[in-house]
Amino acid sequence: MLKTRVITALVLLALLLPALFYLPQGGWALLVAAFIGIGAWEWGALLGWRSASRLVLGGVTALICAGVSLLDPVAIGAEVIYTPAKDWVLLVYGIAGVFWCLVMPLWLQKKWALSGIGGLLVGAVVLFPTWLAMVQLRTLGPGVLLGIFAVVWMADIAAYFSGKAFGKHKLAPSISPGKTWEGAIGAGVGVVIYGLVVRQVFGLELLTLPLWILALIALTAISIIGDLYESLLKRKAGIKDSSNILPGHGGVLDRIDSLTSTLPVVALFWLLVVHTAK
């Protein structure tokens, strides 16, 4: 199992890194659209849909993302003129921010299930802002987007090892029995250390030090919420993984569960605080 996971991870990196660093912005947007389309296909499984309906959902989702990139290349940075903070973009991120920061804690408490049109709308709120953020944040530089990914990876790694070493108190036993409060605290510590190193190395002074640490802790909490949400949906659907498309890792949603919550929030922060300050 470990060997399969490592091989799949290496293959993914071999495909992702060249695309991330060398594809033109328009090509990157289309590639991510295909990736999110697979995620939508998996979302259909969480809704309990049959294979044909899932294929349609995945294809339509990919086409919508691709269509937006072609209809408004200025908003995604595919033209010389770049205008990321358009009204519709802020609306998309705003809805996602409210969903993850305000609605989701209640959702996890109530353990609501997905179904019907509501399930489709939630899927749109989860997947489309993720596509948009993954495309727009890349305009800051491939290394910046990779660094944002690393925040989530650091949270996962730190949570795993601290949970293994110190985990005693369950975080959400009815949703994800393996997660503990000690693991969550370890994730926060790991992300703060990572964030402080990045701040020092690259001279980032977007916020004062206390606010920077607070933002890192908040981002860790949001990433954990994204992870817990997908765990809840899989438990409700009675499945272990969103799919088996990535051997040893499950599906696309299993790999981007925390990114779906963190990327739109980071993008919203960037547009409202950093971009508007220029």
Strand content range: under 5%
Give the spatial strand order of the biggest sheet.
Answer: 1-2
Give the class from helix and strand content and strand pairing.
mainly alpha
Number of domains: 1
Oligomeric state as shown: single chain
Instruction: Report, as a whole number of angstroms, the end-to-end distance.
Output: 48 Å
- Percent of residues in helices comes to over 70%
Q: Please state the average pLDDT score.
A: 92
Radius of gyration: 18 Å
Biggest β-sheet: count, sense, barrel?
2 strands, antiparallel
Account of the protein in words:
With about 280 residues, the protein is mainly α. The protein has one domain (about 1-275). The chain is about 75% helix and about 5% strand. The protein is built from ten helices and two strands; from the N terminus they run H-H-H-H-H-H-H-E-E-H-H-H. The protein has helices spanning about 1-20, 25-45, 50-70, 75, 85-110, 115-135, 140-165, 180-200, 210-235, 250-275; strands at about 170, 175-180. Strands 1-2 form a two-stranded antiparallel ribbon. A hairpin with a 3-residue loop joins strand 1 and strand 2. It is globular and about 55 Å long.
Blueprint (SSEs and pairs):
Blueprint: H1 2-22, H2 25-46, H3 51-71, H4 73-76, H5 87-110, H6 116-136, H7 142-166, E1 170-172, E2 176-180, H8 181-202, H9 209-237, H10 252-274
Antiparallel strand pairs: 1-2
